[in-house]
Design a protein that fits this description.
The complex is a heterodimer of chains A (about 180) and B (about 290). Chain A has a two-stranded antiparallel sheet with strand order 1-2. In chain A, a hairpin with a 7-residue loop joins β1 and β2. In chain A, α3 packs across α4, α4 runs antiparallel to α5 and α5 packs antiparallel against α6. Chain A is about 75% helix and about 0% strand. The longest helix of chain A is centred in the N-terminal third of the chain and has 29 residues. Chain A has about 180 residues and is mainly alpha-helical. Chain A is built from seven helices and two strands; from the N terminus they run αααααββαα. Helix content of chain B is about 60%, strand content about 10%. Chain B has nine helices and five strands; from the N terminus they run ααββαβαααααββα. In chain B, α1 packs across α2. Classes of the chains: A mainly alpha (about 180), B alpha+beta (about 290). At the A-B interface, α3, α4, β2 and α7 of A face α2 of B.
Chain lengths: ~180, ~290
């Protein structure tokens, strides 16, 4: 009696797939590619000019000079790495969590700059550094990063997607 | 069903009193009834549990295989990320500390030395030129490098034609390199190759501008004919006071950002400027 029931279980399970379970991978596909592209572009624009990238980090006045230089040089490559993983759909959940952590750090940094009354550009997509007091855009910068954070959280929750190198098994093992 | 099996076995085994008649009957009855069922049930159970066990073993093996593969993927990705980020940092370190390049291939002719006066700009071009362009730039400001790339040639051509002289205010608010480059710019103007040095500084704006890099740029610009006074001037930061006086002068002129340009004291809207418009502005100012 037990043997046939075991055989039937996965079948009835797949039959019971909800509409959400069918749609979620497609949403995740769009979210994954969009978040990956944003990170890739953000990193790529910063890689071009290391001097400016370091300057953008220093403008936050949060890190000592040596560390600011390391972050200015290294962070763009971190963004590119995570962006590539997301676009490839490789270790999606881990990459999404890393992207989310990055966004939390960015939001905290921009919020702290705003709270301290600094007049800087976030340097999110290259550039950065001091701007005229009336030209800050902290609200929009934080809103954008919150949006990206939500995207990362969605992917961490629903990492399965189409056109990804990840197999379902990887995510099952993660769970 | 299973309880019959031991009874059927016991029947013939247990040599009880009515063995003669009941024995065969007792033997027959349970044997005939139960044996096929008894034979079938345990054997099908055995095969089912064996199948299950095999299935489970296969799944375990598959899972172990998957886990090993996942671990390999994770390790490969981790190594790739370390190489990417570590290599990236090393690459950027090299880019900012290497020797300057991309300088004009023809060595600059050493011209008349400019005098460096506190709070006063470096004058580049013919002093009889009818149009004066005031330029406020930081050698490490990325928009200044963009400006130079887009409009530098136009302005230089107008200088060469004798129409324009540039009053250069090299500001230094971005970083240490802004100040060392501004000082070196003053040294170069004093040594008579300011114009070529200016172009070289912006052509290499990603460099951090150590003294060695500034001296190396001078050698490239002059074709190795840098006067000895230049390297002394750079190494000692001779014009440090002048550099800070330029920042104050820019403040007093109400300049809040770089690049800022005035043509005959009229501010120019650089973000919306085109090369054609710049040529027109220069031409109309020259009339």
């Amino acid at each position: 009696v037990t043997a046939p029931a075991e055989d039937a279980a996965p079948e009835s399970g797949s039959l019971r797939r909800t509409r959400f379970e069918q749609v979620a991978p497609w949403i995740s596909t769009v979210v994954r590619l969009a978040l990956g592209a944003v990170l890739l572009v953000a990193g790529g624009l910063k890689v071009i000019d290391p001097q400016t990238s370091v300057q953008a980090v220093k403008a936050y006045e949060l890190l000592p000079a040596g560390l600011a230089r390391l972050v200015g040089w290294g962070l763009p490559f971190v963004e590119i790495g995570i962006g590539l993983l997301l676009i490839l759909g490789l270790l999606t959940r881990t990459a999404a969590i890393a992207a989310g952590a990055l966004m939390v750090a960015f939001i905290a940094a921009v919020a702290s700059a705003a709270a301290r009354g600094l007049s800087i550009d976030c340097g999110c997509f290259g550039g950065g550094g001091a701007v005229a007091p009336g030209q800050t855009a902290y609200g929009a910068e934080i809103a954008r990063d919150v949006g990206l954070l939500l995207a990362a959280l969605w992917l961490a929750w629903q990492p399965r997607s189409r056109f990804a190198l990840d197999h379902d098994e990887i995510e099952e093992n993660d769970e | 069903v299973s309880s019959d099996t031991p009874a059927g076995e016991k029947g013939p085994a247990g040599k009880k009193a009515p063995a003669g008649e009941k024995g065969p009957a007792g033997k027959k009855a349970p044997a005939g009834k139960t044996t096929p069922a008894a034979k079938k049930t345990p054997s099908s159970k055995d095969s089912a549990s064996a199948r299950n066990a095999r299935e489970r073993a296969r799944q375990r093996e598959e899972q172990a295989l998957r886990r090993r593969r996942d671990r390999r993927i994770i390790i490969a990705v981790a190594v790739a990320l370390v190489v990417l980020i570590g290599g990236g940092i090393a690459f950027q370190a090299w880019r900012t500390s290497r020797a300057p390049s991309a300088t004009p291939s023809t060595p600059a002719v050493i011209g008349a030395p400019a005098t460096i006066t506190s709070g006063k700009p470096i004058m580049l071009g013919n002093s009889d030129a009818p149009v004066t362009i005031r330029l406020y730039e930081d050698f490490h400001c990325p928009h200044c490098a963009d400006f130079e790339e887009e409009f530098g040639a136009t302005i230089t051509a107008a200088q060469d034609a004798g129409t324009v002289q540039v009053a250069l205010y090299p500001m230094s608010f971005i970083d240490q390199g802004s100040a060392t480059a501004a000082n070196a710019m003053a040294c170069a103007a004093e040594a008579g190759f300011g114009q070529a040095y200016y172009t070289g500084l912006f052509a290499n704006h990603t460099l951090q501008w150590s003294a060695a890099q500034l001296n190396s740029l001078a050698d490239q610009v002059t074709g190795g004919k840098t006067p000895a006074s230049f390297s002394t001037c750079v190494d000692q930061g001779k014009h440090a006071d002048w550099v800070s006086s330029i920042n104050s002068a820019a403040d007093q002129a109400g300049v809040t950002g770089t690049p800022t340009m005035f043509i005959q004291d009229k501010p120019v809207d650089i973000p919306n400027l085109t090369v054609d418009q710049l040529n027109q502005l220069i031409a109309s100012a020259a009339k």
